[in-house]
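Lecture 7 notes: from sequence to structure.
We start with the chain below.
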Amino acid sequence: MDQKNKQDELNISEIEKGKSHIIVEIIEYVPNAVVIKTIIKKSTGNISIMSFDSGEGLTEKITPFDTFAQIIEGEAEIVIDQVSNHLKSGQGIVIPAHLSSFIKPNGRFKMIQTIIKSGYD
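Predicted structure tokens for the same chain:
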């Protein structure tokens, strides 16, 4: 893929609908960065794919919605309410709403994050 096509692909807010994709190839690693690309974004929730370079993670946060995180390449440590969970490629975990969580770096990895906002009282 030439540089212009790569840049055009990075500028798309959602991936092309009605076309199959190799999810792990939708996003690339960027040195010293966390990259996030939206797959679907709706008022009722969103699905994003993320790549984390070695040494990069996400800071502690609390969200009002359950979040599903699935590792699709590499390994990561997801800490939920001070409990460490080591996930490898193919494994996923539901991060419950209203609990603190963060992602500790464990080398390079990619993951899919799904947040569903509807159905909450």
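Points to note: Helices lie at 3-11. The domain at 31-116 is CATH 2.60.120.10 (Jelly Rolls).
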